[in-house]
Design brief:
Largest sheet: 10 strands, antiparallel
Order of helices and strands: HHEHHEEEEEEEEEEE
Strand content: 15-25%
Distance between the termini: 153 Å
Shape: elongated
CATH class of one domain: Mainly Beta
CATH architecture of one domain: Distorted Sandwich
CATH superfamily of one domain: Glucose Permease (Domain IIA)
Radius of gyration: 45 Å
Number of helices: 4
Helix content: 10-25%
Length: 291
């Protein structure tokens, strides 16, 4: 009897438990609200963005790259050195290349290193127009005893005004810039001129008539430097001076004192002397008098 009551009680207990669970399941479960941000964002039409890439800026003179008479700037270049190596004044190159500041040139920039036609440079070839042949009347038979007419001698044709005077590109007749002994001879790789001994303050003389195309200390390795242009072919350079006695664009005469010997940018007092033929260094001893 007791077992029967026990089983009924167990059934009732289980039934109550089931009802409790069902009741709990029927209650709404409160969860944190989820915000549908996508529904709140207004849709916008997609407009292609304009390209932010800037057009490549070409350096001055790029259209002349590789052409004769032009030079493309490389790393480490200086306008003074470019002038020295091409037999020109750095100021002339700056003017021909429309450079306002000679101290600022860019790698890849193309410079004009020959003068334009207006300054005696080589221009474009002259195009000769086609000549239309003109019919000539038939020749009449000439008498065997009649001599041919004598042609008048043509007058000599004067050279054009832009032509260089005779001897303008020839050896100007160099003299030694100093009486010191030669410390180091010319070498195409190691020494592009002659090193001449002397004492501080000794005179440095212009080796030939010319014009000062550079006077200063802007070229590394040369110290206080003077460059003279003698004609369209020859330049001379005088380096390591302690004092410069001339100015750029000044005309000088052969034997004129242009500087005083020194040791600027050098390990000792000496004069470094170069002769440049069309910008290329040549052995000065082949142009100087034997002594």
């Amino acid at each position: 009897m007791f077992g029967l009551f026990a089983r009924r009680g167990l059934v009732l207990l289980v039934s109550a438990l089931v009802l409790t669970l069902v009741g709990c399941g029927s209650k709404a479960i409160h969860r944190a609200p989820v915000e549908d941000r996508g529904s709140q964002v207004k849709r916008q039409s997609v407009v292609p963005a304009e390209s932010t890439a800037q057009p490549v800026q070409q350096l001055p003179g790029f259209e002349n790259a590789g052409k004769p008479g032009y030079y493309s700037v490389k790393s480490g270049d200086h306008l003074i050195r470019i002038g020295l190596e091409h037999g020109q004044s750095y100021k002339d190159i700056a003017r021909w290349s429309n450079i306002d500041n000679p101290d600022r040139i860019e790698i890849g920039q193309v410079l004009r290193i020959v003068p334009p036609v207006s300054e005696g440079g080589v221009g474009k070839p002259v195009l000769i127009s086609k000549v239309t042949p003109v019919a000539m009347p038939p020749l009449q038979a000439a008498s065997a005893t009649k001599s041919l007419p004598t042609l008048a001698a043509s007058a000599p044709v004067a050279p054009p005004a832009s032509a260089s005077p005779a001897g303008a590109d020839e050896d100007p007749g160099f003299i030694w810039p100093n009486n010191g002994t030669v410390l180091a001879s010319f070498d195409e790789v190691k020494n592009k001129g002659l090193d001449i001994s002397g004492a501080a303050g000794d005179p440095v003389l212009a080796s030939a008539d010319g014009r000062v195309v550079y006077a200063g200390a802007g070229l590394r390795g040369y110290g206080n430097l003077v460059i003279l242009k003698h004609n369209n072919t020859y330049l001379t350079a005088y380096a390591h001076n302690q004092k410069l006695l001339i100015k750029e664009d000044q005309s000088v005469k052969k034997g004129q004192k242009i500087a005083e010997m020194g040791s600027s940018d050098s390990d000792r007092v000496k004069l470094h002397f170069e002769v440049r033929r069309q910008g290329k260094p040549v052995d000065p001893s082949k142009y100087l008098p034997v002594r």
